[in-house]
Amino acid sequence: MVRAVYTAVLLFAVSAAVYASEQGEDSVKGIVCEGLYALCTSAPCIPDPTDPEKKAVCSCEVADGKSFGMKTCPERKASTDANGVTKVTSTFSFAQAPTKPVLVCPSGKPWTDCLDSPCIVDPRDPLHAVCTCGIERSGAFVTLGGDCNTITCDTGYWSGATPDTNQAVSEQLMKEFGIDTSPMTLCPGMEPK
Question: What are the boundaries of each domain within the chain?
Answer without folding.
Answer: 2-177
